[in-house]
User: Fold this.
Amino acid sequence: MGIFDAVKICFVKYTEFSDRSSRSEFWLFTLFTVIASLLTAFIPPVDTIVGLVLLVPSLSVSVRRLHDVNRSGWWLLIELTVIGIFLVLYWCCKKGDEGENRFGQKPLA
Assistant:
């Protein structure tokens, strides 16, 4: 999967919070959001628009990524604590469950 495939999938599935996302989909979309944020950081009206456009797809792919390691999307709220940031980061780096789990089939790479 390339970065453009990941971005396309994340924008198509931006309202889907019940499926699973692969590590490559999550990290490539995260890379895209970081690049987009850096490119627009010094253009005040554009940076706000870009941030708002990327907000829901970012939340969606994050929830789906947690689903891939058999965690509820509600675990994202733990990022509000310092230790929680590292826990969610670990889960996002962790290999997903093999086969089907309670959130669906294993995502394609």
Remarks:
- The mean pLDDT is 94.
